[in-house]
Design brief:
The chain is α+β, with helices and mostly antiparallel strands. The chain has a domain of 89 residues. 34% of the residues lie in helices and 20% in strands. The longest helix has 14 residues. The protein is globular. The two termini are 30 Å apart. The relative contact order is 0.17.
Length: 128
Amino acid sequence: MSPVRFKRSKGCNVTWGKWLDPYTNQTFTKASDIDIDHVVPLAHAHKFGGYNWTRKQKRVFANDLENLISVEDNANQAKSYKAPHQWMPANNAYHCTYLKKWQRIKAKYQLSASKQEIYFIKNVKCKA
């Protein structure tokens, strides 16, 4: 474990720490190398049911810690708003965890899914 360091002038701006990115299975120490990713992206949620949400419901979803994860910035940008059938983490060992988390969040917020998404998730072989 490594202590977090802050910018001198701004006590809430983290510059250094230690983060393990499950998408790439790499460890990062510079805060500028990571992004906070929404496992189920905001745009995806909007398209699959979130368009009906109130401003408060959208805020709750956007700030749900279960849906937020520290990942390498390039992995986050590659993922963008894609569903699992369009993008999966480079770290194969994380695939099943990622899909379970994806499904749990979608169920929690009663979001629908495309046929391609359902088929893909159903056909990924995960160990019990």
